[in-house]
Amino acid sequence: MESDNAIKRVRAATGLSQPKFAQAYRIPVATLRYWESGGRQPDAAASALLLAIERDPVAMRRLLE
Hints:
The chain is mainly alpha-helical. It has one domain: lambda repressor-like DNA-binding domains (434 Repressor (Amino-terminal Domain)), CATH 1.10.260. 72% of the residues lie in helices and 0% in strands. It has five helices and no strands. Helix 1 runs parallel beside helix 4 (44-55) and helix 4 crosses helix 5.
């Protein structure tokens, strides 16, 4: 995930609000907001998680439940 727009796009594709997305995928909501505002980019592990969510959000949700 290289840009805040990509992160917003991934979240928007799930149809979830920031708090719901953060809860579903175990990301602190403050961190998600910071990423989306462009304050900081996700590290390598978070980028991998976001890529997996982008590719199959339902499977990732199930794995994290």
